[in-house]
Every structure is written in C-alpha cells, then in structure tokens.
Write a structure and sequence with these properties.
The chain has a nine-stranded antiparallel beta sheet, sandwiched between helices. About 30% of the residues are buried. The longest helix has 17 residues. The protein is an alpha+beta fold and about 375 residues long. The protein is globular. It has six helices and 19 strands.
C-alpha cells in the first residue's frame, strides 16, 4: 500500500501520515468488501517505510491498519553494518505484538534494501560483503521476505548513489552471455544461493562466547560475531562472520573431520581438523565477509544443536509482582549423557543463553 509514504518525496499531502492512514484504511476496506482479502485472497502489505520509521509505523498500527495488512514492509536502508538493524526489527515485532488483532500472525518483510558503492567509504568489495550479511541477518530475525535493491546499476554516473546499487553494471551487451557485467556483489549472491539454496535456517549459535567482544548499537550491547546453522535432512552447514574491525577465533565442533570453507567470492579451501580425540576439532578465524562451512561426514555435535528447539527471538511477559517461569525442552539425540545450564547475561535486557556440555566441557551455546 504505497511506497515510502513517510517521506515527502513520495507523499506530498500536507496532512502527512493522517491522510496516508485514511487512504490505507479505505483501500483495505474496499478490498475486504470485494472479497479479495483473507486466506484465499491476495496479500495486502504496508506501509513500505523509508528506513524503519517507528513513530510512523506505530501511528499506522494504532489506527487499526493491521486489521487489513498481512505483513509489515520496511526499507531498512543504512550506511552502517547490516547487523545494526536487529534492534529495530525487535522494536517493530513488539509493536506488531502490541497492536495486531488477536491470533493474527503478521511478519516483517524487507521490501527494499541495498548498499550503493557511490556512498562515502563504500566500494564494490564492501558492497559484496554487506549483501550476504544483510540477507542472513534478515533470515536470523525471521524476516519473511528480502528484496535487494537493485538488479543493475541505474546509470553511468559513478558519483550518483542511485546509479550504483546494482549487482551488475549498467551497460547492456546485446547478443552476449552474460548481457550485463557482474559485480562482486553478484558473485556474493551466487555463492550464497549455491551454498544455502536448498537448506533451511535452524538457529544462530554462539561458540565460546567472549562477552568482551561487543559493540554499541544505538547505545545497546550487541554481539559482533555471527554463526548460523542450516540443515537439509541429516546434513548441516554453518555460515559464520564477524562485523568488527578484527576477527574473533571460534572453536567449531568439527569432530576430527576436515572442513571445507567457501568464501563469499566462491573461492574454496580446506581447513584441517585437530588431533584425534579432540572433540572441538577446528579453530576458525571469523572475517567480515561470511564463509560457508561444510563437513564431509555427519557432525554429531551440530546435529545435536539442530535437534534443540530454537528459542524465540524475544519473550514478552506480563507477570506483575512475580518472576516469569520459563520451560525449555532439550532432546538428547545421542547415547552420551549431556547437561544444560542457563547462563543469563545482564545488559540493557536479559538475554536467553544456554550452554550444552558433555562431561562438564562446554561445547556450544544455542541462542
């Protein structure tokens, strides 16, 4: 329902948000009256804000537009790291929870987002690093759909940001294959889809958490290291990176198996496992561009991680005068004894974290 109505470039009405809400309500009601909404009808989404404009979104939600919308669309543009969007997504999820009709699930979608190589301190290599991190960050935050802006450069002016968002260059070469010259970001997208296209996201993991490695995003504490677990049947894969200036070393439970490392540009290498009997088999240095980590043989520890129910992105409690009670179920998928213990970390909020151990040895932390 419209495009970026929270900025004057696309919504010039003097009444601003009030007029947009009136139009959006009338549109939703007309579609409903025509029988076009509902489970067997079309999907109506809005408001497709420029950036994640929380006051504008809350005004729409408070006015009842979630009665008609099947998803909330935002355009999370920024010239900072893609991971900085996480707390903004959380705020939107909580607003939806507050205003959505009862029993209606309304996801967030990233309807438009990209990085221009004409921005200050950006180039094609940095764009290529941001692309998979952006899409993977969306996946980790339950964003139901991600649309990269855009397909090819819109013009030839190297100093115009609007001309430099593309995955391929502007020049069209008829009769040639490929008809556009790919940029590094194109290869980054190709590698991501080749490595994870048939896999499903399982959960994010935190290995050997180093609590001192934190950055401050909008005054909040946020982890800089990312390890995501994907699965396809019995096969598991990891993608891992760090968006800090220096990489952090994580210990991966490789199970004495060599690990194939596929970089963002498609380059492939092999990292050797540790000594026999070393359960935590490989130390891996995280880098600013995601790598895809593959194991030749079944990895018991990661299969256990995949078998534990993923914790929700947040819990919301309304328990005045008493502490909330949480119950988390763990399923042992091996013949070995395992123990789990909660490790709350106090920052600006309580984070849920749990350590899984075998014979008192910490192995991994599902988050």
């Amino acid at each position: 329902m419209w495009n970026e109505p929270n900025i004057e470039q696309f919504w010039k009405s003097p009444a601003g948000r009030a007029d947009y809400i009136a139009l959006a309500k009338a549109t939703g009601q007309a579609l409903r009256d025509a029988g076009l909404l509902g489970e067997k009808g079309e999907a109506l989404i809005g408001p497709a804000t420029s950036t994640i404009d929380q006051p504008f979104l809350e005004g729409c939600f408070k006015a009842g537009l979630l009665e008609f919308w099947d998803a909330v669309s935002v355009h999370p543009y920024r010239q900072t790291a893609p991971e900085t969007v996480e707390e903004e997504y959380r705020a939107v999820r909580l607003l939806i929870r507050k205003y959505a009709p009862q029993d209606k699930t309304i996801p967030v979608i990233s309807g438009e987002w990209g990085y221009s190589t004409a921005w200050k301190d950006f180039d094609e290599q940095k764009q290529a690093k941001c692309l998979p991190r952006q899409l993977l960050t969306n996946i980790a935050n339950d964003v139901a759909l991600s649309i990269w802006y855009d397909w090819h450069d819109d013009g030839r002016d190297a100093k115009d940001p609007e001309h430099r968002f593309g995955l391929v260059r502007h020049e069209y070469h008829p009769g040639r294959d490929p008809i556009y010259d790919p940029k590094p970001a194109y290869q980054a997208m190709k590698t991501l889809t080749e490595q994870l296209g048939e896999f499903r996201f399982n959960k994010s993991l935190a290995f050997n958490s180093n609590l001192s490695r934190m950055d401050r995003v909008n005054g909040n504490l946020s982890r800089m290291d990312r390890v995501m677990l994907f699965e396809k049947g019995e096969e598991v894969r990891l993608t891992a990176w760090s968006y800090g200036d220096t990489g952090n070393v994580v210990e991966l439970p490789a199970g004495n198996d060599d690990m194939t490392v596929v970089k963002t540009d498609g380059a492939t290498g092999v990292q050797k496992a540790g000594q026999p009997g070393n359960r935590i088999g490989i130390k891996y240095m995280l880098a600013p561009d995601p790598a895809y980590l593959l194991f030749k043989r079944p990895n018991e520890a990661l299969r256990i991680a995949a078998g534990v129910n993923r914790l929700p992105l947040e819990w919301v409690f309304d328990t005045p005068g008493r502490s909330p009670e949480l119950r988390i179920r763990f399923r042992n998928m091996t013949a070995n004894p395992w123990s789990a213990r909660p490790r709350p970390v106090r920052g600006w909020r309580m984070e849920s974290r749990c350590c899984l151990a075998s014979k008192s040895r910490p192995l991994w932390n599902p988050t």
